[in-house]
UniProtKB/TrEMBL annotation:
Organism: Nitratireductor indicus C115
Entry EC no(s): 5.1.1.7
Residues at the active site: C76, C76 (proton donor), C224 (proton acceptor)
Family: Belongs to the diaminopimelate epimerase family.
The encoding gene: dapF
Name of this protein: Diaminopimelate epimerase
Length: 302
């Protein structure tokens, strides 16, 4: 049986993350292992961030992202912050360059413990989201839920941060919408051939919005970093806000800056919870009992 791999259970503003240490290994975390880990209450998660050896020069690691349903994701902002904190605690390094399937991400941990991730450039072309049919203006596409003559949600903006996002704009409390019901319908709508992350956003100031997200492959989460980025750039490109936005998600605030060079910088915290070891093929796991639990951790390698 392959050696067990180390992991750290962490979170990014309540987005439940497992950082899996797959360095020095030739195997991967299987979808079955992901679903098994998620089935265990103590290790249930939204995403696994699997840290692999680097594959291209100039990068520290290749990061594979797996949703709790076992599907692969191209981007995970909150999870990337957790990876930075874990590796920084292990190595003392503060700046990292990662390769993901969506491209190269630079990230750094600041003196105050907050972590900034360059999430790259947003993509707005209908084929880049992707959408199943052509829409010339992705700031507002024809999609709605609820009665045809009085839709509950309609005309979302769509954007890709390497992964697909639809943002529905509302003018009342985002918690007053039944996202648990509408989320899966929209996630799996045929307009999204790769499914989509579904968010409801209320703009509260020129530099602030409130956001709730039903995540593709994970369901309702307390935070979605790439959705916060997608919502911030969509709010700016529709004239609802400026390019620097505080996005308040159920787990807390994320600071998003859409720079003039088109890169989106997300800044927020990460939190270490506990460590363990697991089988990347089956998902069986054991908690580390080396006394690291119970200490207040600001970091902790996987
Ligand atoms: N929670 C993540 C997003 C993870 C991937 C998403 N569910 C997808 O499948 O695209 C984040 O913080 O960005």
């Amino acid at each position: 049986m392959a050696e067990l791999a180390a992991f750290a259970k962490m979170n990014g503003l309540g987005n439940e993350i497992i950082v899996a240490d797959m360095r020095g290994r030739a195997d991967r975390v299987t979808p079955e292992a992901a679903r098994a880990l998620n089935a265990s209450p103590a290790t249930r998660f939204d995403q696994i961030m699997a840290i692999h050896d680097p594959r291209v020069p100039g990068t520290d690691n290749f990061i594979e992202i797996i949703n709790s349903d076992g599907s692969q994701a191209q981007a995970c902002g909150n999870g990337t912050r957790c990876v930075v904190q874990a590796l920084s605690a292990e190595t003392g390094k503060k700046a990292f360059t990662f390769q993901t399937v969506a491209g190269i991400l630079n990230a750094q941990e600041h003196e105050n413990g907050l972590i900034s991730v360059d999430m790259g450039r947003p993509r707005f072309g209908w084929q880049d989201i992707p959408l199943a049919e052509e829409f010339a203006d992705t700031r507002k596409i024809e999609l709605q839920v609820g009665p045809i003559d009085d839709p509950v949600l309609h005309s979302p903006s769509v954007a890709s941060m390497g992964n697909p996002h639809a943002i529905f704009w509302v003018d009342r409390d985002v918690y007053s919408y039944d996202l648990e019901r509408f989320g899966p319908l929209l996630e799996n709508h045929p307009i999204f051939p790769e499914r989509a992350n579904i968010s409801i956003a209320e703009v509260t100031a020129d530099d602030a919005l409130t956001l709730r997200t039903w995540e593709r492959g994970a369901g309702l989460t307390r935070a979605c970093g790439s959705a916060a980025c997608a919502a911030a750039v969509s709010a700016a490109r529709t004239g609802r806000t400026g390019r620097r936005v505080t996005v308040s998600v159920p787990g807390g605030p994320l600071e998003i800056l859409w720079r003039e060079d088109d890169h989106v910088i997300m800044t927020g915290p990460a939190e270490w919870e506990f460590a363990g070891h697991f089988n990347p093929a089956t998902g069986s796991w054991e908690r580390e009992t080396s006394g690291r639990d119970g200490e207040h951790k600001t970091g902790g390698a996987a």
